[in-house]
Design goal:
The protein has helices spanning 8-19, 41-51, 65-71, 76-85, 102-105, 119-128, 148-155, 194-202, and strands at residues 2-5, 24-27, 32-35, 60-62, 90-95, 110-114, 131-133, 135-136, 161-164, 175-178, 185-188. The protein has a single domain, classed as Alpha-Beta Complex (DHBP synthase), CATH 3.90.870.10. By secondary structure, the chain is an alpha/beta fold. The termini are far apart. Strands 7-4-6-5-10-11 form a six-stranded mixed beta sheet, with helices on both faces. A five-stranded mixed beta sheet has the order 1-9-2-3-8, with helices on both faces. 35% of the residues lie in helices and 21% in strands.
Length: 203
């Protein structure tokens, strides 16, 4: 395992490693995340095994809205919310345009996507090809890592690279909304409130 300061060179190396099947821990706008290339089934399975998480879909970070449009159906409502809240802590569950492994979405026809405002997470997604897995850096059910040092204590040598971007801001995980049906469902409360979402849709 390599423990690296999150310089541009290190982020580039981590993105390349992801394209080769690597698993990377990195800072986000809330807590540290653990991720891999979204299209790599072996790496996605490895993350589920590391976390002890086998029954929940893995959220994705897209480098930008264009990357999101390639993998999910961006409805008019999704476009409105993306224009208002991305980059930001809002994950939207949308109908998938591409098929990922069962480790990512467990056979569902949907994907949860967001664009992170954190420069390291955003650059890493871009360097890896546009779309990466982003789930909290923890063993399922435990507190997530708020620093690279905490991530090292949790995972040890079970990951390939830990990018040290300093202490994370902490706070709530991203808000999750389901936009796949006729009604909009708030699946998880978070930094973006339900009233803010409805106001953005009415605008």
């Amino acid at each position: 395992m390599k423990f690296l300061e999150a310089t541009d060179e290190a982020i580039k190396a981590a993105g390349y490693l992801m394209r080769e099947g690597g698993v990377v821990v990195y800072p986000t706008e809330t807590v540290y995340g653990i991720g891999c290339l979204a299209s790599d089934p072996d790496a996605s399975r490895r993350i589920c095994e590391i976390k002890g998480r086998a029954d929940k879909p893995l959220p994705l970070i897209c480098a930008d809205i264009e990357a999101a449009r390639k993998i999910v159906e961006m409805t008019p409502e999704a476009e409105k919310l993306a224009a208002r809240f991305w980059p930001g802590p809002l994950t939207m569950v949308l109908k998938a345009k591409v098929k990922y492994s069962m480790w990512v979405n467990h056979g569902a026809s949907t994907l949860g996507v967001r664009v992170s405002p954190h420069p390291v997470a955003q650059k890493l997604a871009k360097m890896a090809g546009g779309v990466i897995v982003s789930t909290s850096a923890n063993v399922s059910g435990d507190e997530p890592a708020h620093s690279a040092e905490e991530a090292r204590e949790i995972f040890g040598n079970r990951v390939d690279i830990i990018l040290d971007g300093g202490a994370s801001p902490g706070g709530e995980s991203s808000t999750v909304v389901d936009l796949t049906g006729e009604e909009i469902w708030l699946l998880r409360k978070g930094p973006v409130g339900g009233e803010e979402i409805m106001a953005a849709l009415r605008a």
